[in-house]
Amino acid sequence: MVITGSEPHVTTIEDGGTMWNRxxxxxxxxxxxxxxxxxxxPNQILNNLNMxxxxxxxxxxxxxSGCGKTTLLSCIVGRRRLNSGEIWVLGGKPGTKGSGVPxxxxxxxxxxxALYGEFSIKETMMYFGWxxxxxxxxxxxxxxxxxxxxxxxxxxxxxxxxxxxxxxRVSFAxxxxxxxxxxxxxEPTVGxxxxxxxxxxxxxxxxxxxxxxxxxxxxxxxxxxxxxHTIGLMRTGRLLAEESPQVLLSxxxxxxxxxxxxxxxxxxxxxxxxxxxxxxxxxxSNISLSALAFGNKKDNPVYVSQESGVVGLNFxxxxxxxxxxxxxxxxxxxxxxxxxxxxxxxxxxxxxxSNCFNxxxxxxxxxxxxxxxxxxxxxxxxxxxxxxxPVMQVVLFCAAIGRDPTGLKMAIVNQEIIGxxxxxxxxxxxxxxxxxxxxxxxxxxxxHFYPTPDDAxxxxxxxxxxxxxxxxDNFTDALVARISLGRDADNETLDxxxxxxxxxxxxxxxxxMLNRDLQLAYRDFAQNLLETCGNNPKLGDVPIQFKDxxxxxxxxxxxxxxxxxxxxTIVFFLAVALTSSALIIERTEGLLDRSWxxxxxxxxxxxxxxxxxxxxxxxxxxxVLIFMLCVFEVNNNxxxxxxxxxxxxxxxxxxxxxxxxxxxxELERNAIQLALGSFYPTLLLSGVIWPIEGMPDVLRFISKGxxxxxxxxxxxxxxxxxxxxxxxxxxxxxxxTIVWIFVFLVVTLVVLKFKRG
Length: 757
Ligand SMILES: Nc1ncnc2c1ncn2[C@@H]1O[C@H](COP(=O)(O)OP(=O)(O)OP(=O)(O)O)[C@@H](O)[C@H]1O
Fold this sequence. Notes:
Blueprint: E1 25-36, E2 43-54, E3 58-63, H1 69-76, E4 84-89, E5 106-109, H2 121-131, H3 136-149, H4 164-176, E6 182-186, H5 194-208, E7 214-219, E8 230-235, E9 238-243, H6 245-251, H7 257-270, H8 272-276, H9 288-293, E10 303-307, E11 318-322, H10 361-378, H11 380-400, E12 408-414, H12 433-439, E13 445-449, H13 453-461, E14 467-471, H14 475-485, H15 491-496, E15 500-503, H16 508-532, H17 558-580, H18 582-588, H19 591-597, H20 602-631, H21 640-664, H22 668-685, H23 697-704, H24 709-721, H25 728-756
Helix pairs in contact: 2-3, 2-10, 10-20, 11-17, 11-20, 12-16, 17-20, 17-21, 17-22, 17-24, 20-21, 21-22, 21-24, 21-25, 24-25
The structure holds adenosine-5'-triphosphate.
């Protein structure tokens, strides 16, 4: 019927109905409102839209680009929710339990190709077949039929290597795969050559003939929609008309549907205000007007292309014929399909579906897992890189971080000697003790002699040396006097016996290391001298005795301090990198939508990704730990089981954080930015490279709440202190990691579910 105020009122569902509306409805949409954008700046897409699709018919949804066709379809298949209004699909409300929608009752072909490029045609069919709950043998049978029907190339050809038209046909085949009750095709004929287009229509006519299958199809080729039983002309979020093509053409006395559309659009323009009111908006009942207008439908045949019994792309067999019934008599396709006479009258009466596919979750999980692994396997180069990356990071860390700097130049001014010849005599001999001290300096220090203090200081200022060491001309005598006189030594003697040092402290690590080495060299030198002279070498030491440390060694390495954090950071952020784009790629390719409409839930998608990524992560974790602990011999005093467990849990945590990113971000580049952006703050605040005890209180508080902080501290305690899980510091790390995993998973699921709405 026509829904503008100026057109004649037509029998409606609410009116009681004619014989033509006493047929089951496949889809009913009532008073649908849908808007995008914020409440303050809404973009109204569906505006009090009513739509009725009778079972066993083809419904052509027409309208200008951007008028809301895809939005309407996505609400029908349960991909999006209306802001208000109601939708019934095959007797249930999409998205509700037991409705079968989304699910195997619907075959959905989105506008985009929405196929995995790295899959072969067969693998594509297997994937969707399993999701629809089909058995492998069934899928194979159906595949053979679809291959020949859609004239597709070898089943082993990869989708990415197919032509655009072939890909579109594969996409069409996926929608047909499980022979669904309701087929929803969003512009299946766009960019398709006329022969294929006709063949698609032929098939649609063929499958709806028996009256059990229903098709909703959108198209921009208005004229091809003549082959539909009903046409819904959509404009600015509502249906201008919903009628059979013949009725529309005769009512508006037009030769083609485009003219009808133009007339209706003009009418809507002039009657826009009245059409806006709900009261005057008739609820349409498709084919009702056709019934009134054409009492004897057999006299009003519809032109459709019908193959001579053969279904497929055998174009030479296609010809424009009138549809014939089995007796050979010609009938129009607007004949009501054979429905039980007392079938449901309106949507409220729609019985809950009885022949819903019983989709096994096992089949879906199998399909999703195989899909994920296959995608990885087909991108073997990327996979190799994914495994090489952690090894590379560990090797680089162990090779570049934590080792003592070498080749550090010291500018030495030694007034005791003439020239660069700095010799001394071993034993209890007091000659050139400055040279004897210098011989105890670490091999990391390069000694360069300068004639005057000014020259040496200039060398440091010009960056040629890290510091100046200055010995007075009577250093040896003064030092001997200092040792022998003890508390009676005068200030001048004490001054002369001192080694004066000026350091370039611009590099803290080098400065501290030189400071330490110079002092240790003095202790060694003094102890050696005292010992050779028969004195107790302890006299040469400061009176603080460092016993064997309770944990760690007397010569702690920076590597040992950083290693736990580095292990966890590598595993955590590799997992983030691996997963943060996983959902986005699928979403941008339209694959996620397709899987959702096929009945896959966010939880199943998430679960399949967790399993797949977990396998990869186990490999990465093994490599990281083998290289850290076995190859580079980072200290481990604890139980390896807890080390492995903590590392795996952190990988899992990173993976879940990656899921949050990919659920939140629409674009891959945003996901990358977010992942990279979170890397530094986490690294800096987690006590990986600097103890959190050095942070201001506020930061320390924040730091403890981050996923890596307590975990790093826990792993450090296991590795260096050898603590077990019963220590607070250790189990807190585990608890915090598990809590974060849980939080990230919940956030992801909430965001995914919210986005589906
Ligand atoms: N996720 C979204 N967020 C905001 N606006 C959207 C979103 N999806 C679609 N729109 C807008 O809604 C309007 C209707 O889009 P829709 O895709 O439903 O139109 P369409 O009739 O299918 O168009 P076409 O025939 O070109 O595919 C467009 O203006 C589009 O920009």
